[in-house]
Each structure stands twice: as C-alpha cells, then as structure tokens.
C-alpha cells in the first residue's frame, strides 16, 4: 500500500476496506485507533483534516496504513 500524503481527507485515509475501531482523541489534537488487524494507528488532525498517519507495528513506526 502506498504512503498517505499530508493533508489527506479522512475518506482518503480510511477507505471501507481499512475500517478501524476504538477511536480516541488525545489532548494534543491527535487521534489513536486500533485497526482491523490489531495495529495501533496514530493520527494528527488539524481543522478536520488528517495531517499524518503513523502505524506502530513491531515497534517500528511507518507512514502508511500497512507495514511493508
């Protein structure tokens, strides 16, 4: 899966095939969620637009929904 560009809309980052659960907003205006495969995703949101997506998998953050 390709990397997600900065400024992507929520619909671009989270297509139906990549549904997530357990959303929780944090005090620093970021968003945490657990994905369908149990990975933890970290989002930075500004004015309703996702600024970046970081996935922590095997203790290695990557800038895409899927770890390669």
Automatic annotation (TrEMBL):
InterPro entries in the cross-refs: WD40_repeat_dom_sf
Protein name: Anaphase-promoting complex subunit 4 WD40 domain-containing protein
């Amino acid at each position: 899966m390709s990397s997600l560009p900065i400024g992507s809309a929520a619909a671009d980052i989270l297509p139906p095939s990549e549904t997530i659960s357990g959303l929780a907003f944090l005090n620093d205006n970021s968003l945490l969620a657990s994905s369908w495969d149990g990975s933890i995703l970290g989002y930075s949101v500004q004015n309703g637009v996702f600024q970046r997506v970081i996935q922590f998998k095997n203790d290695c953050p990557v800038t895409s929904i899927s770890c390669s």
